[in-house]
């Protein structure tokens, strides 16, 4: 029989937040793969756990090389526990490669749910949480960072990022430039730790605050892009709305007039968008696309 891979969530700050099952899994593991073995020792000491399984390091630098070894152990029947420095493995932490290898070999993968910096920051941010997307760490180079931000400049969902403290000011300034200086955000620092701090405000204001230097683990929550107002709809959206009305039984002339009225734009603008879309479709048809 094959073994089991257990992804264990660990505290993001306060060790008292450790899930009750974590101690039991630490005791039961044949192999414990830890992002930092020293942090693992501190965690087991805090939990009063004396592990008997083999402890190996598993971090960004050796993840690719060590994955086959751990996958072999799993296939041989071992119970492998994966822990990272904080939060859930695989979420901007080592783990994805091992999970993929385990799944490929038909090994059971389960998890010990635990604290999450992403969800904790969302919950305390004061920003909408009904829909969100996690973007992880942005690229370190300024040009690549700006490019990544531009990709989600029109994203309506709340955005969540991790960032290093020494890059925070530059990142917030880049966000203010791409998303708009007045876009609301929250910088969550040292969540659940002694010096926990949540700063809320417009991106430009937060960038000015961070310019003086910030320490600790950082999670940034940014408000999604606002819904387009009158006159802000793209031609493709105008065409889509006309087609919806036509499918509902309206004549094209009526549909165009109705869309123009609700979008706050001249009828000519909607008409031109519909004609351009029709011409584009004809061109694609002639070219065989």
From TrEMBL:
CDD domains: RsmI. It is found in: Cytoplasm. It catalyses: cytidine(1402) in 16S rRNA + S-adenosyl-L-methionine = 2'-O-methylcytidine(1402) in 16S rRNA + S-adenosyl-L-homocysteine + H(+). Transmembrane segments: none annotated. GO terms for biological process: methylation. Its EC number is 2.1.1.198. InterPro entries: 4pyrrol_Mease, 4pyrrol_Methylase_sf, 4pyrrole_Mease_sub1, 4pyrrole_Mease_sub2, rRNA_ssu_MeTfrase_I. PANTHER family: RIBOSOMAL RNA SMALL SUBUNIT METHYLTRANSFERASE I. Catalyzes the 2'-O-methylation of the ribose of cytidine 1402 (C1402) in 16S rRNA. This is Ribosomal RNA small subunit methyltransferase I. The lineage of its organism: Bacteria, Bacillati, Actinomycetota, Actinomycetes, Kitasatosporales.
